[in-house]
Amino acid sequence: MDLSVIWKSLILIAAGTLLLRISGRKSIAQMTLAQTIVIIAIGTIIVQPIVEKSVTKTIAATAVFVATLLILEYLQIKFNSVEKFLTGKSKVVIENGTLNVKALKKLRLTVDHLEMRMRNEGLAKIEDIKYATIEPNGLLGYELKDDAKPVTVGELKKILDLYFPKATADNTAMNKEQPNIFTEINQQSKQDHPDYLQ
């Protein structure tokens, strides 16, 4: 194998990583349509110089794609109409425990696919959902009905305060004695750890 091919590959990987790092940190599932197209295009472009022997042109083309993506994202922040056109808006697919069949048809989404997304979120019943939306990045957003919401720590503390005030006071005192593992981060102090773990 020609050594120049290895060097070109390494340069392209480094340049591609840097340019993609600039474009932002998102998984494929979280990407918008424009971002997905740019990523696919960058992947295709980045292989070209190994065949065509033009590393600088490839890096320049990749930089143009990333710059275009950044401009589009800036325009989406500034103008709601641009965001609506490029990214789209969330679509309500469940409302008060009832499927919105019209929205599902527009999204070309079957009930089975919706249920699969619900299972991934740990949701068992459509009837428990107050609102569910399909977001522009394809993920499921939802709000549960009041009766189906899990009890929060704050709500549990209120119940315990109401029925067991002494036990809650003892627990609070005990928690104050426990060291906070994040104090080291806040104080930026090093403790007695080996140098290689600092």
Summarize the structure.
This protein is an alpha+beta fold and 198 residues long. The chain is built from nine helices and four strands.
How is this structure best described in words?
- The protein has about 200 residues and is α+β, with helices and mostly antiparallel strands.
- The chain is about 60% helix and about 10% strand.
- It is built from nine helices and four strands.
- The chain has a four-stranded antiparallel beta sheet with strand order 2-1-3-4.
- Taking the alpha carbons of the first and last residues, their distance comes to 42 Å
Strand order across the largest sheet: 2-1-3-4
How helix-rich are the residues, as a percent range? Answer: 55-70%
Count of folded domains = 2
Rg over CA atoms: 26 Å
Question: What is the name of the CATH superfamily of the largest domain?
Answer: bsu07140 like domains
Shape: extended
Count of extended strands: 4
- Strand content bin: 5-15%
CATH class category label of the largest domain: Alpha Beta
Which CATH architecture of the largest domain is right?
2-Layer Sandwich
Helix and strand element order: HHHHEEHHEEHHH
Output the keywords.
198 residues; alpha+beta; CRO Repressor; four-stranded antiparallel beta sheet; 9 helices
Write the layout of secondary structure elements.
Blueprint: H1 3-23, H2 33-52, H3 55-78, H4 80-86, E1 91-95, E2 98-99, H5 101-106, H6 111-120, E3 129-134, E4 140-144, H7 153-163, H8 165-177, H9 183-187
Antiparallel strand pairs: 1-2, 1-3, 3-4
Helix pairs in contact: 1-2, 1-3, 2-3, 3-4, 7-8
